[in-house]
Specification:
2 strands, Farnesyl Diphosphate Synthase, mainly alpha
Length: 329
Amino acid sequence: MSTLAIATAKEVFDLLHDDLLAIEREFGSESVSSVAAITEISGYLREGGGKRIRPSLLLLSAKSQGYSGEGMIRLGAVVEMVHTATLVHDDIIDAADTRRGRPSANTTWGNAKCVLAGDWLYMQAFRTALEERNFRILDLLIGLTQQMVEGELLQMEKLGLAIGEEDYNSLIYRKTACLFEVSMKLGSVLARADAATEHHMGEYGRTLGMAFQIVDDVLDLTASEEVLGKPVASDLREGKATLAVIHALENGSNGEREAIQTVLTDRNFENATHTEILDILHRHGSVDFAMNTAFQYAESARVALNGLQDSEYKRALLWVPDFVVSRDR
């Protein structure tokens, strides 16, 4: 691993501040439609904030490879539009009432308008990406969209089932890690990097994304509603078995497995409480197991940067895995 010092959060924020503001402006201008409902829904979603980690990765990837053109602003807005579209569809599929501490868009505008607004954002993302006139960019975005749709469908098929680690890893790759991977690869495409460099940058994104989603799933089980900005244990309530739950199912007693399976099947905590499930997870070290797995993925992300030339942008990329595994929301 590189001996280059890892950046601080403030250094990363200062490094990307102006470019992220430019991406916000680009996102805002590209999400205006002649149909008022689309503009309103897009604006509401954009104002909801978020970590903007995906466009930040694209910026750091491009800059760390020597790119400094406007394409990274345009494509930063593209990946955030794609991400936002997936959130709209996720909330509809999951019948979610809240998102980031606010009412989800579908509670205000309804499912029909929101699913169409999500579709519009997807198409607008592709229209914006077309301005780069680069088939490799379109190839990456098309593959990404297909993976994410497949992931949602596969997840729906697995609801209520005690899936194994292999299925879980496949789901979270499609759900989250593939967008991290493509964000990093897009930076390489802009910088005209060779295939090997693009692969390593993509591997950084993939493993970082895996860590990100595992931590997300742990926080869903263990954080408070005030911190999360949405109901806790939503995954269990929706019948989704995440990594800590899978570990407990594989290591628990018959009675413990039955309690967990009851929640997954019933999709409520009427016959086994959230506290009882957490007790089972802690008893078997399942939360620690999941977090240790996330730490391993985070370290793999750092290792993927070994061949990258030292720079302030590489220092920032070395910091991101620490942020991902130490966050509380």
